[in-house]
Structure formats: structure tokens, C-alpha cells
Design brief:
125 residues, 45% helix, alpha/beta, globular, single chain, 5 helices, Rossmann fold, 5 strands
Length: 125
């Protein structure tokens, strides 16, 4: 079963997206903040990380930079999730090393397509 790490500070969003991903055959582990996401990326070695951008003290950009700096986690694709559909957010995703970018509320078929592209090594940030 393919493991996804969901880094999301909103409990309702975490629960809803976890249930939807599990129904599609994924194993999901969750981190409620950036530092936990960085730690869990190392411990869990997920196939893909879904990274909320607005996380608080350590935002998703900073967490992604730390994940990409570690040799043990550098190759894990990260998909940035944000409520803002700004071109600057997409550009920032590329700058910090994200494989792709998606907006919230999550359109599950679109997100699943991006997850599958990452799993196949086809990234499109």
C-alpha cells in the first residue's frame, strides 16, 4: 500500500482528506505542523508528501526546504496545498523543491492525478 504523509494543521481538513485518500487505497499518516512533518518524513519514508503551505510557526515552504536538504528525504515528491491560487505561490513551490502544487478546497480527482504523476516520476510544478 502506498504511503502518503499529509502535513495539515486543520484537523477537519486532515480528517476529511485522510478518509478520502484511504478510500482510494492509500495509507495515510498525518503531521499537524511543519516540524512534525519534517520528522515524520524521515521516520515514515512516504511515497508522496502533501504539504499545506499555511502551517504557523514553520510554514510548508520552510518544512519542504528542510525535507529536500536531507539526503534520506530529498527524493520524496512534495505536493504543496494552499487556499491561494496565486502564480507567486506556484513559483514559490518550484523554488523550494515541490514536485507539484494544488489548491484547496481539494478537487480529489485532480489531486489523485497529481499524486499518481508523482508516483510515476512525472512532476509538473
Amino acid at each position: 500500500m502506498t504511503k502518503i504523509l499529509l502535513v495539515e494543521d486543520n484537523e477537519m481538513n486532515r480528517d476529511m482528506l485522510t478518509r478520502r485518500l484511504v478510500r482510494h487505497g492509500f495509507e495515510v499518516c498525518c503531521a499537524p505542523d511543519g516540524p512534525s512533518g519534517v520528522r515524520m518524513s524521515e521516520e515514515e519514508q512516504p511515497a508522496v508528501i502533501l504539504m499545506d503551505v499555511a502551517l504557523g510557526d514553520m510554514d510548508g515552504w520552510e518544512a519542504t526546504i528542510l525535507i529536500k536538504r536531507r539526503a534520506s528525504t530529498a527524493n520524496i515528491p512534495v505536493i504543496a496545498l494552499t487556499a491561494h491560487a496565486l502564480a507567486s505561490d506556484r513559483m514559490k513551490s518550484v523554488e523550494v523543491g515541490c514536485a507539484d502544487f494544488d489548491t484547496k478546497p481539494v478537487d480529489l480527482p485532480r489531486l489523485l492525478s497529481k499524486i499518481n504523476a508523482c508516483l510515476q516520476g512525472n512532476t509538473a510544478a
